[in-house]
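Page 37, top half.
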Amino acid sequence: MSWIYLLFAGILEVIWSYSMKLSHSFTRPIPSFITLISMIASFWLLSLAMRTLPLGTAYIVWTGLGAIGAFGAGVILLGEPFTPMKLSAVILIVMGMVLIKFSG
């Protein structure tokens, strides 16, 4: 169950980072509200996952999912540039998360 909590915490991290961008420094009420609610829910689910998962594993997977998802949201939804170097970075993040998972 901890991995499910962690997966949803990572998804919520993507939602709050994307909605934070849309909030324009918290000057738009609806994206600001979505940012705060999804941030709280993401941290809560992360804390539930940390009950049984090691700190390093949980945190690295959570931030990795958030980083990859935020990158994807930026490219797909905001038209940010997609380059081979950025793709290489995403692959390295995924490889790092996999190595952390299987190292323990």
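Page 37, bottom half:
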Amino acid sequence: MNRTDRLYALVEELRAVAPRPRSARWLADRFEVSARTVERDISALQQSGVPIYAEPGRTGGYCVDKARTLPPVNLTPDEAVAMALALRRMEDTPFRVTAGSALRKLVAAMRADDAAAAHDLAGRFHLLGDGAAAPPVPHAVADAVAARRVLRIGYADRDGVVTTREVEPLGYVGKETHWYLVGWCRLRDARRAFRTDRITSISATTEVPPPRPLRGEDLDIRYGVLQRLTLGA
């Protein structure tokens, strides 16, 4: 079991028996780690805001306040990223920090595999400025990265000339005026950014391409401050 899964399982174990405590030794045996590892994990959970406290005494141990924690949340990766994008609109409000904290708690309550998928998907969104005023993105484009299918698109250049391309979707860049789909263009055999309002037609194929990373430095944007989307930052 990796650490992320273990942290999730620790909280669920403490929730299941609350308000009774579990000792560090009991938890260590349960998860096949050392008591010191359990203590480090509990400390990390406490620092992230999980209401775990130590109950002293021979029969004491760690307890969680069940009333202040969430059971597993059926939030999908797409929904978590949508919430993160919506919260970017609160950057200049007094609620910026608390909104980020709320999202972190929701992500922490997701199933471990869904949370990992949400973080991966969020990392494929990059924003120039806040991206909040950009026009809407067609549904087929908005679903492209999460669906991980090769797209066949018609794309008009600045002179209106339309070409047909097969594109492996990699991520998105949003700015105040436009959203861009970033993808591996098989016509050009290179990464390209496609303005979504210039996509004239789109269809998803059944082909799942091999994964390609997308980092900020891959985008080669020489102006503006490029920010990677995070969940609850």
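Margin note: The first helix runs from residue 3 to 17.
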